[in-house]
Design goal:
3 strands, homodimer, WH_DNA-bd_sf (chains A, B), Arc Repressor Mutant, subunit A, three-stranded antiparallel sheet, 8% strand, mainly alpha, DNA-binding
Chain lengths: 153, 153
Amino acid sequence: MSKQSLIAEITGTIARSQDATDRVDAAAAGVLGLNRTDLLCLGVLVRGGPLTAGQLATEAGLSPAAMTAGIERLEKAGYAGRTRDEADRRRVLVAATPLAEQRVTEIYAPLEKLGSARLAKYTVAELETIRDFLGQGIELQNQQAERIRGLAK
Amino acid sequence: MSKQSLIAEITGTIARSQDATDRVDAAAAGVLGLNRTDLLCLGVLVRGGPLTAGQLATEAGLSPAAMTAGIERLEKAGYAGRTRDEADRRRVLVAATPLAEQRVTEIYAPLEKLGSARLAKYTVAELETIRDFLGQGIELQNQQAERIRGLAK
DNA sequence: CCATTTGTTTCGATGATCGAAATATCTGCT
DNA sequence: AGCAGATATTTCGATCATCGAAACAAATGG
């Protein structure tokens, strides 16, 4: 197989990889009974411990108003709890509930476990190649996102 | 750097890579004045030539009703055109306009060009590693999406 | 040529989101 | 101490994307 066609194959594979990621998240959202935005917020909460409503809004790219509504939905579903920050009573701290931790783990732990196991099969040199590939991809995309924004209106 | 920490680093990098992809699409949607769903549809149209409304709906995972509304928006924005299929007049063929082709190319071509150039720097062996890594990742995610769906309710 | 199937649109309802205004609390200044 | 702004969240009203079901239009097969 020629290098050129390998490159073409990889280009297509990158797109399909993004679709696959999307399917995992869609399945997770379905099982949890959440929309994609709320799933994103819950993921942030589970990984990043308690956050204020505002921090969560920034992470998720939501307006304050949308965040309030989203927290409400997570709370009603039993996946998040709200407590006023006693140090600064304007703030509201939002945290994932044990139920959320448990269900998110049930959903994502096997994926992470198998993902790590899969990586462990590679040599260190191969892993470095993969890391660089991904890292440079991020840089490229961030730089291009910047350029695209500059095209504006 | 130990293999174990390399694996951990890559795991985190995968997540950030998805975020970066998301930022590119968000920037593109912003510049085109489209929401994410309509951008997805336009991408399908630009890559996949004219499609019927129904095929487009299936590709995008939308209900027929939502698709009609989406096509309307793309049409109003000047990015898509509708024509009745003369062979089967129930069908409506939707195609990207030249304006859409031009603007989508302006947005994504540099990314693709630089992406390919970047890949060209790797050896064939390295590219095979990358291809396998991505391909196995897709398989893993599809399989896990299936499992997760099975967890239902 | 009518009954059924297929493809799209219309309709009414719902849900997620936004910007702006309202509310609550904190901080700094005098 | 107390007031003026700044900051964090919520409420409000409006808009937009989406859905399911019904309507409509056109094809297909007895």
